[in-house]
């Protein structure tokens, strides 16, 4: 899944949702990782290449949805947000705002 964020010049972000990809080939090796919360329930992995392509993998203990934001200043106003999840019937949704 790829999204081009208009506010971030010449960058392409890929967000892998591993829970949606069962049965497919393994994602590429991502060299960087960090837990984003003190309880270690939100795990982010990422890597980039020479062409400024950045790949993200977000692993989250969730009740069916996850949101992930990008901001040049670390604040919600002006950020780009990716939201994805699973409806009760099992269908998947993915949105960018």
TrEMBL record:
PROSITE patterns given in the database record: DOMON
Cellular component terms per the entry's GO annotation: extracellular space; secretory granule membrane
Signal peptide (UniProt feature, chain positions): 1-23
Keyword Signal in annotation: yes
Coiled coil (residue ranges): none
Keywords, ordered alphabetically: Signal
Domain of life of the organism encoding this protein: Eukaryota
MF (Gene Ontology): copper ion binding; dopamine beta-monooxygenase activity
Keyword Methyltransferase belongs to the record: no
Domain DOMON positions: 40-97
GO annotation (BP), single: dopamine catabolic process
InterPro entries: DBH-like, DOH_DOMON, DOMON_domain
Protein name, per record: MOXD2 protein
Gene name as annotated: Moxd2
């Amino acid at each position: 899944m790829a999204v081009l964020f208009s506010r971030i010049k010449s960058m392409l972000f890929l967000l892998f949702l591993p829970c949606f990809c069962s049965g497919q080939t393994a994602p590429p090796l991502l060299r960087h990782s960090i837990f984003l919360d003190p309880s270690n329930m939100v795990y982010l992995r990422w890597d980039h290449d020479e062409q400024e392509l950045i790949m993200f993998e977000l692993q989250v203990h969730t009740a069916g949805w996850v949101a992930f934001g990008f901001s040049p200043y670390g604040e919600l106003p002006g950020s780009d947000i990716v939201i994805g999840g699973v409806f009760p019937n099992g269908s998947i949704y993915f949105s960018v705002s």
